């Protein structure tokens, strides 16, 4: 899905995890792609000839930065990832709004029921 276009700065904030593509509209080809996590910002500034992800400059320059460019985004089929600790436990929300927890093999998980509040 095309999410941003123009002959100047193009930028996009990912609403979900996925893949972003910078397309040279003049040459009709993808000139840069990267994985984005939810809320990360991809920005291309032709005057600076660079792509930035959350303010960090990508090491690759863009050929023909004076061309018109567009950003396309494809949402990941996996639930959005949010790291919750240093032991690689990841939580997210699926398309139905159900919270999921992904735990690496070999990690012990103790599930405890939350107390209910009586009215």
Enumerate the strands of the largest sheet in spatial order, edge to edge or round the barrel: 1-8-3-4
The biggest beta sheet is recorded as: 4 strands, antiparallel
What is the number of helices?
Answer: 0
- The helix fraction, in percent, is under 10%
Global structural class: mainly beta
Q: Whole-Å distance between the termini?
A: 47 Å
How do the SSEs run, as a string of H and E? EEEEEEEEEEE
The radius of gyration over CA amounts to 19 Å
The number of distinct β-strands equals 11
Description:
The protein folds into two domains: 2-75, no CATH class; 79-107, no CATH class. It is built from no helices and eleven strands. 13% of the residues are buried. The strands form three sheets. A four-stranded antiparallel sheet has the order 1-8-3-4, with no helix packed on it. Strands 2-5-6-7 form a four-stranded antiparallel sheet, with no helix packed on it. Strands 9-10-11 form a three-stranded antiparallel sheet, with no helix packed on it. With 119 residues, the chain is mainly beta. The radius of gyration is 19 Å and the shape is elongated. Helix content is 0%, strand content 44%. The protein has strands spanning 2-6, 10-13, 18-24, 29-36, 41-45, 50-53, 56-57, 69-75, 82-83, 90-93, 99-102.
């Amino acid at each position: 899905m095309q999410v941003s276009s123009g002959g100047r700065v193009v930028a996009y904030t990912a609403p979900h995890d996925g893949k972003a593509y910078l397309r040279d509209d003049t040459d009709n080809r993808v000139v840069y792609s990267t994985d984005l996590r939810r809320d990360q910002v991809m920005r291309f500034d032709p005057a600076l000839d660079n792509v930035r992800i959350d303010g960090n400059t990508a090491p690759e320059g863009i050929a023909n930065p004076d061309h018109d460019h567009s950003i396309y985004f494809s949402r990941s089929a996996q639930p959005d990832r949010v790291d919750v600790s240093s032991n690689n436990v990841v939580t997210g929300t699926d398309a139905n709004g159900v919270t999921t927890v992904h735990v690496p093999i070999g990690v012990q998980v103790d599930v405890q029921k939350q107390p209910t509040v009586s009215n």
